[in-house]
């Protein structure tokens, strides 16, 4: 579709017992370097091999680096395997799954559409006005936490950057903005604006 894609194929990382430790260390470093260069990380899982410690390490690195991610499972008929993988990838529940067959090429064409889509999501910009409409509805639906008669106040929210989408929320008391309420606000952002396939970051600032 008139777009150029550059693929960086990393060394196949397997369980530690199967490879020399020095070689494995080098492969992991090369893979981390590839993640740093990439716009989108397609995390390939072999349905027969299963979810390995290395898969977890690389996926975790891609998540922390704020990259758009797709989980591609090789063996397209293994959809029943998805539930187990959803548990393995609970820390990146935003990442879509695609089941492909490297052997027959089945559904590989769909992978390009997904790469394009998550890249756009990772670079999405949302206006401050729309974000604050969402914030008003979210705080009215679930009241911010209180402590000793003092309530957390969320003054406003704005997007500071993309790749990954990063939001700055200005509050009266940062220590009262507990993790659970931050997670609630993040979920409301996703529910309202999509942002599928990309991590998001929420930065909390005390006004004044």
Structure summarized in a few sentences:
The chain is an alpha/beta fold and 208 residues long.
Portion in helices = 25-40%
How many strands in all? 8
The low-confidence runs, each spanning 5 or more residues with pLDDT under 50, are: none
Beta-strand fraction estimate: 15-25%
Radius of gyration: 20 Å
The helix count comes to 6
The computed structural class is alpha/beta
Secondary-structure element order, as H and E?
HEHEHEHHEEEEHE
Kindly report the spatial arrangement of strands forming the biggest sheet.
1-2-3
What gap, in angstroms, lies between the N and C termini? 49 Å
Shape summary = elongated
Profile the largest sheet: 3 strands, parallel
Compute the average pLDDT: 90
Task: Give an overview of the whole structure.
It is a single chain. This protein is an alpha/beta fold and 208 residues long. It contains six helices and eight strands. A hairpin with a 2-residue loop joins β4 (146-147) and β5. The mean pLDDT is 90.
Topology:
Blueprint: H1 21-37, E1 40-46, H2 53-64, E2 68-74, H3 82-88, E3 97-100, H4 108-122, H5 128-141, E4 146-147, E5 150-151, E6 154-161, E7 166-171, H6 179-193, E8 201-206
Parallel strand pairs: 1-2, 2-3, 7-8
Antiparallel strand pairs: 4-5, 6-7
Helix pairs in contact: 1-2, 5-6
